[in-house]
Design goal:
2 domains; about 550 residues; six-stranded mixed sheet; Rossmann fold; about 15% strand; alpha/beta
Length: about 550
């Protein structure tokens, strides 16, 4: 394709610069025109070429909707499969995808990968804000990218003749160029509406690279590669009479009579000697060598363009999933907000109306039936949640995990207000069911998982524990939890613990550590649960008798 200062790779990778092509090296060369006394391109397509060397590596057209240019200050941390299962992330993925497999794959890849650079998170939030403000524009760009990635590419066997190979390479290339033009036109229409650096970089790059002049030259070059007026190539004699230096020239111009419209195109041909066997004619072999290289170059250029569209589609797919989730939540009356991101350092957690999105998606009328929590845990690194059974403790735990993951993916969260510091990954230790293989008991299984977590955790990670060590007695569990959680918090790990270990909770409460925050599931005197958490010292009971009266209202049992 024509040389562009912002192309997709080196000259032979991304386009077909005008000039002569050496099939042995896939290089085009400038031809000395002795008639003019100086170097110049031959007439025809060559006269459109700039004077600079076509082998110069052009700059790539760069864009990234997920992160700014340059390396991030810190690397992201992936959530483990256990975390996704414990939090129920798959339901969120399905809700975001709405049966679009590309979106499903994108959100599964992006959401669990926690960004740890606050600047990158804010960059992604700005792109998302543009997407939320102009959803129709983003969906249009996504549909164009999907259409481009669906353009059929043909596999060419070794036995196919070179002219057939070239035609099969040109067909998808022509469609891709037309789709590029459609993409640029769409970006031109929407460019002024975007405020984010990511979308402005994309639309600005397309406007700078895919100019009308550039696209016209691309179309002209593709039309020339049809070779409607024959081929022109040359070679030199090497040792032993072998042909070397095979060079394909610019296609010859149409005859004068045809340029004036007086003659129809006649196929260009030659007559091979009758003694030549099929496939062994030297001229045919030379033509095949030249055209095979051109076909490979065109095919590779199409690969690069389709790779560009694939990357654009996959990145836009994440934001399409966010748009879908935002639409579903807001239609149900669930509050959402872009969180305030604090860099890693002092522990921060402050939220108003924090809800679990999975519960909001699965509950009828979530605006009135799902209760939000207001928590001020700034400066606290250990949150201990106790209180009544069925009081919303586990739901709150999952809502914190969801919010942290969604914030560090650059998404909105289900709350009226949310702010937190960046954490080096979200990890979970939830009570598991019985081991059906009977290889070990529940306590041994819990300890094995915790041992693996300790080896995996980073300083400044977030650990969510739901009824850890409940498989053993209160005294033994207290002994295990005391040393373990003290060591983890000292190492900088932030812990949110839901527990019924009253002995441990009371022992920890007596320490009066300023980094601890005790929350309690609210319960009315008549046993009613509001599913709200409030600060409060741990109670000696989980009020299981309330559940007993619910199950056996007449007092039986």
């Amino acid at each position: 394709m024509p040389t562009s200062p912002h192309g997709w790779g080196t000259a032979h990778e991304a386009h077909l610069p005008w000039g002569r092509l050496h099939p042995e090296s896939t290089r085009w060369q400038q031809v000395p025109d002795r008639r003019a006394g100086h170097d110049r391109r031959r007439r025809g397509l060559g006269r459109r070429v700039r004077s600079r060397c076509p082998m110069r590596r052009p700059r790539m057209m760069r864009f990234d909707l997920l992160a700014p240019a340059g390396p991030a200050a810190t690397a992201p941390v992936a959530a483990a499969a256990e975390t996704a299962a414990d939090l129920g992330l798959d339901a969120l993925y399905q809700a975001m995808a709405e049966q679009d497999p590309v979106v499903l794959e994108a959100v599964r890849a992006v959401l669990p990968l926690s960004l740890t650079d606050a600047a990158v998170i804010r960059y992604r939030q700005q792109v998302l804000a543009d997407c939320l403000a102009h959803p129709d524009a983003i969906r249009e760009l996504y549909e164009i990218a999907c259409r481009a990635t669906g353009i059929r590419r043909y596999t060419v066997g070794r036995s196919r003749r070179s002219n057939g190979m070239l035609r099969l390479a040109l067909q998808p290339m022509t469609e891709l160029i037309a789709t590029l033009r459609t993409l640029r036109e769409a970006c031109d229409r929407h460019r002024a509406r975007f405020d984010s650096a990511g979308l402005n970089e994309l639309t600005g790059s397309l406007a700078a690279v895919l100019t009308d002049d550039y696209l016209h030259r691309v179309d002209t070059q593709l039309a020339a590669l049809e070779f409607d007026h024959g081929l022109r190539f040359g070679a030199t004699l090497g040792p032993g009479g072998t042909l070397t230096g095979l060079t394909l020239y610019d296609p010859p111009p149409p005859p004068a009579r045809r340029r004036l419209g007086f003659d129809r195109a006649r196929p260009q041909s030659f007559t091979a000697p009758e003694t030549a066997e099929p496939g062994t004619d030297p001229l045919t072999q030379l033509k095949d060598r030249a055209l095979t290289t051109v076909a490979a170059t065109v095919s590779h250029a199409a690969d690069r363009i389709q790779d560009f569209f694939t990357r654009l589609r996959d990145q836009l797919a994440f934001y399409i999933g966010c748009l879908t989730l935002h639409r579903r939540l807001t239609a149900a009356g669930v509050p959402v907000c872009l969180p305030v991101v604090h860099p890693a350092g002092a522990p921060r957690l402050n939220c108003t109306g924090l809800r679990e999105p999975g519960l909001c998606l699965s509950t009828p009328d979530p605006a009135n039936t799902v209760t939000g929590n207001d928590i001020d845990a700034d400066g606290r690194s250990f949150l201990i949640v106790t209180g009544a059974n069925n009081g919303g403790k586990s739901t709150f735990l999952r809502s914190v995990g969801y919010a942290q993951l969604m914030m560090q993916a650059g998404m909105f969260v289900t709350a009226d207000h949310f702010e937190a510091d960046v954490r080096a990954g979200v990890f979970t230790h939830f009570a598991a069911g019985e081991d059906r293989a009977l290889t070990h008991g529940k306590l041994a299984e819990e300890l094995a998982r915790m041992s693996h977590l300790v080896d995996t955790l980073h300083p400044n990670s977030l650990l969510l524990c739901n009824e850890s060590f409940a498989a053993t007695g209160d005294r033994d569990a207290t002994t295990i939890a005391t040393d373990l959680f003290a060591a983890l918090t000292t190492a900088g790990v932030k812990i949110v613990l839901v527990t019924h270990l009253t002995a441990y909770a009371h022992a920890r409460h007596t320490l009066a550590d300023p980094g601890d925050l005790f929350l309690r599931a609210a319960r009315a005197t008549d046993g009613h649960r509001s599913h709200r958490l409030t600060p409060g010292a741990p109670e000696p009971t989980a009020h299981a008798t309330d559940l007993l009266r619910t199950v056996f209202p007449d007092g039986r049992g």
